[in-house]
Specification:
It comes from Candidatus Magasanikbacteria bacterium RIFOXYD1_FULL_40_23. This is Peptidase C39-like domain-containing protein. By secondary structure, this protein is an alpha+beta fold. It has two domains: about 160 residues, Cathepsin B, Chain A (Alpha-Beta Complex); about 50 residues, no CATH class. It has seven helices and 14 strands. A five-stranded mixed β-sheet has the order 13-10-11-12-14. Strands 1-9-2-3 form a four-stranded antiparallel β-sheet. Strands 4-5-6 form a three-stranded antiparallel β-sheet. A hairpin with a 2-residue loop joins strand 11 and strand 12. It is globular and about 55 Å long. The two termini are about 30 Å apart.
Length: about 220
Amino acid sequence: MLDEYYFGNRDKGVTKTKAKKSILYYINIENKLFGYNGNTNAAEMTKVINEYSKYFEAKIKTNPTLEDIKNELRAGRPVIPLLYGKNLNNPRILFSRSGSYYHVFVIKGFDDAKKEFIVNDNGDLKQGLDLRYSYDTIMGALRDYDHKTQKTVKPATVLFTSQRMLVKTKDSGRIYLIKDNQKHHVSSPQTFKTNKWKWSFVMVVEKNWLNKFQTGPSI
């Protein structure tokens, strides 16, 4: 779960209850915005993340190179690939033969020695955690989704993600932006308006949690 990852729970498991709550949160948003919650394409996913996630933001990258993706992972930023799932050749993922084979998961690491990406693939219910696919397999399967044709289409598309949290402590009115493991004091309400942030995104955190971040310039 990228929400948990960017909050800092990178080595801890997520309970089924918490995971279900998070999934339902985004499903309800998609239903409200689009009238459906399946086969959301790059533009739709980016809209949902940027307007409704309290933890991270996303941007669309078309025709990424292998090095582009690896650079994001080196920086500690997981990548969301949009895929023609049939090309993954994973028999444990059950696609409908009459469907689009559209598939999405999270790339969280890579292994140059074996030329493999390390992913969390929730479509593989048996071995999806820390699953590995070759570089060639994922790079060759990258697509987006076209609602008109109901098929996956080129160009190759991924979402690059990055940390973006708005927080305050219970004993202070100062609001901070947490980004790239730095805290930036939000010095003016105009900053919220300029960035189209929602005041409801501000989370109350413990002072010890906030203090672990280096202080960056105010914004």
